[in-house]
Design a protein that fits this description.
- By secondary structure, the chain is α/β, with parallel strands linked by helices.
- Helix content is 31%, strand content 27%.
- It has helices at residues 61-71, 77-89, 91-108, 182-192, 197-211, 216-229, 251-261, 273-280, 302-310, and strands spanning 2-4, 7-12, 22-28, 32-37, 43-47, 116-120, 122-125, 130-137, 140-147, 150-154, 157-158, 162-166, 178-179, 240-244, 265-269, 289-293, 317-321, 328-332, 337-341.
- Strands 1, 2, 3, 4, 5, 7, 8, 9, 10 and 13 form a ten-stranded mixed beta sheet that branches. The chain has a four-stranded parallel beta sheet with strand order 14-19-16-15, covered by helices on one side.
- Helix 1 (61-71) packs antiparallel against helix 2 (77-89) and helix 5 crosses helix 6.
C-alpha cells in the first residue's frame, strides 16, 4: 500500500509472465480496480461490487470479476484470465485494503450511510483532474475519460456521500452516445483526431443547410451554437437562442437539429418544474442543452423565469425544499438553452 498524490493506493505485484503487457495493477481509494496496459492499450477502471442488503461491506467478488473481464474484452483472452486469477489470489489483501478505507471514512465521518446513487451525463473530477462523459459501450452504461492520448473506462464514480453512474440507452432524457465496442470507439477517435473547429463548422453547416431554409447568417448562428453547446461548461456565461414565428416556418426542424446535433440535446414541450430540476440536477452545471418548444407561455410561470433568469451564468442555482426530508436543496440552472415559440416572452415579465 502506498500514497499517490495524497490518496491511498494499493499496488498489486504482477508476476513476470504479465510484465510484458501489464504496466501496473492496483486498487484506488474510490475502490476501483486499475489496470494499466503497455503499448497501445488503454487504462481500464472497473469498480469493486458489494453485496446488497448487508450491514457489513462484503465484496461481491464473482460480479466484480465478471465486470472486470467484460471491461478487458478485446485483450488477449489468456492475459485477461491471468489478471483475473492474480486478483483472485490477492483477494485477502484487497479485502483488507477495502476494509481500511471504510474504517478511515467511519472515523472522520465521511462515510454517509445515506449514500445516494445519482445518474449524470458528465462529471469533472477535481481529485483526478479528469472529465468523465457517459456513453453506452457494448450495451452497458460507461464513463470514459481522455488523458495523455488514452481512453480511460469506469462504470461508476464513488464519492463520500454519493455514487455517480452514467445514463444508459433507456433511462436517459437525451439520445445516448452509443458504441458497439472499444475498437469502434478508438477507430472513431483516430479518424477525428486531426479535426479542428473549422472542420466541425463545415460539416455541421452542411447538415444544417440541408434542412433549414434561412438566410446564411441564421444558418451560421445555428451551426456555431451547436458547436458552442459542447463547450458551454468552459464559459462563465451563455446566451439563449429564440426562434419566433407562426406555424409552418420551420421552428420544429430547427429544434430537431439541436436535439440531434447539440450536446445532450433534450427537447421539452410544456415541462413541469420538477422535470427541469431533475434534468439539470444538483451535481454539476451544463449537463445538457435544453430545447424549449412552445415557449411563448414561459413568462406566465414564476418558477420557469427563476430558472431562465439565473441559468445564463455558470454556477446559477435555485433553492427548493425537499418535501420528503424538509431540507433545502439547490439545483443547477446553467445550461445553453434554445426556445421555440410563436412570440417572444413579455418584456416586463421576462426582462
Amino acid at each position: 500500500m502506498n500514497s499517490n498524490n495524497g490518496f491511498t493506493y494499493l499496488r498489486i505485484d504482477e508476476p513476470e509472465e504479465l510484465k510484458e503487457m501489464v504496466k501496473e495493477i492496483g486498487i484506488d481509494s474510490n475502490l476501483n480496480i486499475i489496470v494499466q496496459l503497455k503499448g497501445n492499450f488503454k487504462t481500464i477502471i472497473s469498480g469493486i461490487e458489494f453485496k446488497k442488503g448487508l450491514k457489513q461491506r462484503v465484496i461481491y467478488w464473482e460480479k466484480t470479476k465478471a465486470n472486470l473481464e467484460s471491461n478487458l474484452k478485446g485483450i488477449e483472452y489468456g492475459i485477461t484470465r491471468k489478471i483475473s486469477l492474480l486478483l483472485s489470489q490477492s483477494y485477502e489483501i484487497i479485502n483488507n485494503f477495502v476494509t481500511s478505507i471504510f474504517e478511515a471514512e467511519d472515523e472522520d465521518g465521511t462515510n454517509d450511510k445515506s449514500n445516494k446513487v445519482i445518474k449524470i451525463f458528465k462529471y469533472y473530477s477535481e481529485k483526478d483532474e479528469r472529465l468523465f462523459e457517459a456513453i453506452v459501450l457494448e450495451d452497458k452504461p460507461t464513463f470514459i475519460a481522455y488523458e495523455n492520448g488514452e481512453l480511460i473506462y469506469t462504470e461508476k464514480l464513488i464519492e463520500n456521500t454519493r455514487t455517480l453512474i452514467p445514463f444508459g440507452s433507456e433511462d436517459g432524457p437525451a439520445k445516448p452516445y452509443v458504441f458497439e465496442s472499444k475498437e469502434s470507439l478508438e477507430n472513431q477517435l483516430r479518424k477525428t483526431k486531426g479535426m479542428g473547429i473549422a472542420d466541425l463548422f463545415r460539416i455541421i453547416r452542411e447538415i444544417v443547410s440541408k434542412y433549414v431554409d434561412q438566410k446564411p447568417h441564421v444558418i451560421d448562428i445555428i451551426t456555431v451554437d451547436i458547436i458552442f453547446s459542447f463547450f458551454q461548461d468552459r464559459f462563465p456565461t451563455t446566451h439563449y437562442l429564440f426562434f419566433v414565428g407562426d406555424n409552418g416556418v420551420g421552428k420544429n426542424v430547427i429544434g430537431e437539429l439541436f436535439e440531434l446535433l447539440s450536446y445532450r440535446g433534450v427537447k421539452m414541450t410544456d415541462p413541469s418544474i420538477a422535470n427541469i430540476y431533475r434534468l439539470l440536477g444538483n451535481v454539476e452545471p451544463a449537463q445538457c442543452t435544453l430545447i424549449m418548444d412552445e415557449s411563448e407561455r414561459i413568462d406566465e410561470s414564476r418558477d420557469l423565469m427563476n430558472i431562465f433568469k439565473t441559468g445564463y451564468t455558470f454556477g446559477g442555482k435555485v433553492a427548493k425544499i425537499n418535501m420528503n426530508s424538509y431540507e433545502q436543496e439547490f439545483f443547477n440552472t446553467y445550461s445553453f438553452k434554445v426556445f421555440l415559440g410563436e412570440r417572444l416572452p413579455n418584456k416586463s415579465k421576462a426582462k
